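so im writing up the methods section and need the Large ribosomal subunit protein mL54 record in one place, dumping it here so i stop losing it
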Amino acid sequence: MNNLATALSLFRQRLMAPALATSARCYAVKPAAPAGKKKKLGKLGPIMEKKVIPVETDANKLVNYVCGSNYLKTGEDVKIKPDSEYPDWLWTLNTERIIPLEELDPNTKQYWRRLRKMALRRNNQLSKLKKF
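--- predicted struct ---
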């Protein structure tokens, strides 16, 4: 009986020895933050700082140029031309309201695109109502 007890105790010591050796965790040290400005971390990462965009206040420039049309670092904005320089169809574009489907001609692409878009929206709404 005594031999059996000593054998079991030796067996337990051998099983427990690796567990005791790995109980000390050796994680890498976190790198120190740079001495400069610290950014706050949100749920999705660092928060982006807002950029202040300059607003044009010169009335003469606002009347004669399309402000913001030049996205390059060099050059200038597009100069506004007289109305006679632009094509006639430009002045007939619909800028007031969306034309209802009933008023559109069924022989045009615009009609069928609108119809398809309405059907997709309807199907998406119906699929949201399904339980599974």
